[in-house]
Amino acid sequence: MPSSEPESGSNDEPEIQSTSEGRAWEDKSMSVCVIGGAGYIGSVTVETLVSAGYEVVVYDNLSRGHRKAVIPEARFVKGDHGDSTLLEETLRRYDCTAVMHFSALSLVAESVENPFCITRTTWQKP
Ligand SMILES: NC(=O)c1ccc[n+]([C@@H]2O[C@H](COP(=O)([O-])OP(=O)(O)OC[C@H]3O[C@@H](n4cnc5c(N)ncnc54)[C@H](O)[C@@H]3O)[C@@H](O)[C@H]2O)c1
């Protein structure tokens, strides 16, 4: 039977294990990193997570988003999702146990004009 608890005797950091009921999300001690959290979808997600009692750290390069869109209750790190060193440091520093990824170049017109730029930015290895 699936469980949201880490296996006993393990020294590993707790894993997010989903259950059919999605119980993992009831553990409010989880710290969530929202990449692209200064954008339209990400900033609303951050507010929802904070309201629900989660610790949240926003990781965003502010290329399209806005620092003011990040509510003061959330921590903020300015960084690019392609900067794996800073991203890893951030995930470790804030002990993140979940990541929500919204960083992208999402404008349709831009993707038609410059598809390769969009592809590089959106799909580059985080
Ligand atoms: N807005 C919508 O209605 C909608 C609907 C469905 C899906 N989506 C998807 O949701 C995601 C977010 O869309 P959005 O509307 O919030 O876009 P947005 O432009 O408002 O937000 C994207 C955020 O990502 C950041 N970002 C971009 N490149 C980055 C990089 N390399 N490193 C770090 N941060 C970076 C930007 O600064 C911005 O804050 C996209 O994948 C989009 O396709 C959006």
Could you walk me through the main structural features you see in this protein, from its secondary elements to its overall organization?
The protein has 126 residues and is an alpha/beta fold. Helix content is 29%, strand content 15%. It has a single domain (27-123), classed as NAD(P)-binding Rossmann-like Domain (Rossmann fold, 3-Layer(aba) Sandwich), CATH 3.40.50.720. It has helices spanning 40-51, 84-93, 108-113, 115-123; strands at 31-35, 55-60, 75-78, 98-101. The longest helix has 12 residues, at 40-51. It is globular. The model is unreliable at 1-20 (pLDDT under 50). Nicotinamide-adenine-dinucleotide is lined by residues 36, 38-42, 60-65, 80-82, 102-104, 106, 121.
Keywords:
126 residues; alpha/beta; Rossmann fold; disordered N terminus; binds nicotinamide-adenine-dinucleotide
